[in-house]
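Preliminary data (for renewal application), MTE complex.
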Amino acid sequence: MARRDWILTSDRFFHFPSPAFMDQPASSQLPDRLPPGQQLAAPGKWPVIGERTPAPNPGPWILRVCGCVERPLVLDLEQFSRLPRTALRLDIHCVTRWSIFDMDFSGVLLADLLALAGIGPSARFVSFRSQSMHDHSSSLELADAIEKGTLVANQAGGAPLTPEHGGPLRNIVPGKYFYKSVKWLKEICLLEQDHPGTWERESGYHNHADPWLEQRYIAPQIDKREAAMLIAQRDFSGRDLRSLLADRLDLSGLKANAAQLRDASFRGAILRDADFSQANLSNAHLELADLTGARFPGADVEGASFNGANLSGVDLRSASLIGCTFTGIDRKTGQTASATLDQTTCFTRSSLEALAAEQQQYILASPATIEP
Ligand SMILES: Nc1nc2c(c(=O)[nH]1)N[C@H]1C(S)=C(S)[C@@H](COP(=O)(O)O)O[C@H]1N2
Ligand SMILES: [Mo]
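Predicted structure:
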């Protein structure tokens, strides 16, 4: 099926995707447009994810195009602003399960920058490098990056990019999870060998990042025997157990302080009184789990699914809830599954703002305690 990663909102580009999808009536667009496991962000909200500020930048902003190129480029913002501009409208999809439709970005196409620099014969990958505290970067196959319509943007929604969203410059990669779009872009380096990006190296994010194939994470190698031992002892404290499968297990009283449980699956598990303080549970599957009395202080639960879970006595006041779900169609059964909340389930009003509208409404209509 034809899939729209972007449409052109200015009149220049080297190819145009099949617009077949756009001929369908509006009501049939939504299921086709939202990649699997994604939901729309709260209207008008563009969450800030990852780093929030660039590293201090001495002197004026410089963008370099280097590596396997024929003519390395060193551009200041004034020179950048005189390059041929392109505007794109596209949907963005964060790996933590929120999407926003019809974002407008404008700037200079990677293809146009590379036409100036000249692609060297050995170039196969492109690394986007950031002016950031830990030298954040992300990479793509060069042909893929060009074909997708990668843009070096300095504007979003017709206004200069704000610093928290990557201003003055970031790259935007249509049709990939948003972690391929690096904020505070300072260097575009063409490479012979891939140099996988920060999230890809350190957090197990998938290097291909196709939201339609749900290429979110590469499962790390967990030694099966060690996992079985940790499960038997119910102690995951400080362990890296990303993508662990623990569906339907009885893990009452689990100790998971500071555990890495990104993308782990606890579907239907018994997690009564579990301690998840400081744990990373982003995108974890907690559907239908019994979490009565479980503790989450300082935990990261972005993109986690609590659909159908029992959350009696659960305190989510200090957790970041971006992309979380509490109610929705269960992907295994096709039925709606909703979390059970009572007066002992706690949120703060500000944390609820990060949720998609449907999720917010569900919690506001429940008996849960919401602190100001
Ligand atoms: N320099 C830098 N770029 C980054 C990140 C980061 O932490 N540092 N996070 C990535 C991730 S995971 C996402 S989802 C998007 C978030 O962009 P936003 O904050 O503008 O929504 O930026 C990407 N680019
Ligand atoms: Mo992300």
